[in-house]
Structure formats: C-alpha cells, structure tokens
Specification:
With 191 residues, the protein is mainly alpha-helical. It has two domains: 51 residues, Orthogonal Bundle (Arc Repressor Mutant, subunit A); 125 residues, Tetracycline Repressor, domain 2 (Orthogonal Bundle), CATH 1.10.357.10. It is 72% helix and 0% strand. The chain has nine helices and no strands. Helix 1 crosses helix 4. The N and C termini lie far apart (45 Å).
Length: 191
C-alpha cells in the first residue's frame, strides 16, 4: 500500500515510541505528541490502531536490512554468516532500537495473523537465501555436501534471533559474542 508522507511520519513516530517504551506505549494520542501532529490528524491518517501498526511494520521492514559488507556468502560462507549475526546484534543504539521494534511486532504475531504472515514471509525469504548460499558453498567445495542446507538456514536464523534477543537484556562484549557465534557457525557447517 502506498503511504502518504504524513502516514510515514506518524509511523516513524510510533516506531520511536516502541523503541523507547514498547508497543503498549503506542496510542493515537502518544503518536500525536511524539510527531507534533494533532490527535485528529493521526485519526484521519489511520482508521484504527491496527492500521497504524501495519504502517509501522512496513516502515520497520524497509530499515532492517543487515549491514553486511560485500557479496553474500563471501569471502567464505563461514565468515559471512558470522558477520550477518553480528550485524543484527544490538551493539549500538540504532540496532538496539530496531531489535526492540522487531521484538514488539514478534510478540503480536501469534495474535495478529497479518503481522504473523509478514514476519513468516520475511523469515522464509532469509532462510531461502541462506540455503542457497549453503548449496553454493557446497558446489564450490567450501563445505561438505553432507551439510543440510535447510538445517543451516533454520539454525542461523534462530541463532540471529536468539543472540539479538538475549543481548537486549544481557549485554555481552562484541568480542565474546563473535567468538561464540563463530563456534556455533563452525558447528552447523561441520567445519
């Protein structure tokens, strides 16, 4: 759905609220105060809180691409997968805010089919990419053919989500996390 500039601005205000105080803080009145628009402007922009949340999720999805330098799977799949997990880990304010926002929507997913579908589709796309990269690494002789590409994809996504989630409430040093992630990735790739 094409959003107006005002809807985008209001959705971004809602995301700022989520990053600071959680999804429970998102009300039309709070979004109005955060954005500087009137309550009526928020009500005219969105017919319901669910419509506002849908716009917020759309905005979040456009901003959460992990910043992993270079071509996917290069220089090696092992190195790239470690960098992927580290890239989404909340080691700075921007990634911490994005993880809080993502978790707020993940908490709604079991109760809101639309949000659940969107998150599942995003997860499916990432797992498909990861499985393709595993198969490419197998064809190039980087990893053994016995490695289960889909199993690696599921494992790495679970690792990404678990590391990011745990670091929100139990921060560890990036060096330690990198070492632990490296060991897990070596294990799933049978290196």
């Amino acid at each position: 759905m094409e959003r107006t500039g005002r809807q985008i601005e209001l959705a971004d205000a809602g995301l700022r609220l989520v990053a600071g105080e959680g999804m429970g803080s998102v009300t039309f009145r709070a979004v109005a105060a955060e954005s500087g628009w009137s309550l009526g402007a928020v009500q005219r922009a969105f017919g319901s809180k669910e419509d506002l949340q849908a716009a917020m999720l759309e905005r979040l999805r456009t901003s959460v691409e992990p910043q992993v330098p270079g071509e996917p799977g290069r220089p090696t799949l092992h190195v790239w997968l470690v960098e992927l997990v580290i890239a989404v880990a909340p080691f700075d304010d921007r990634r911490r805010a994005m993880q809080r926002q993502g978790h707020a929507f993940a908490e709604l997913a079991p109760f809101d089919d639309r949000i659940g579908r969107i998150i599942a589709e995003d997860d499916d796309r990432l797992r498909a990419l990861l499985a393709r990269l595993v198969r490419r690494a197998q064809s190039e002789g980087e990893i053994e053919n016995s490695v289960d590409a889909e199993g690696v994809a599921w494992s790495v996504l679970a690792l990404m989500q678990g590391v990011a989630s745990q670091l929100l409430y139990d921060m560890q040093s990036e060096a330690d996390v990198r070492r632990w992630v490296d060991a897990v990735v070596q294990g799933v790739l049978h290196l």
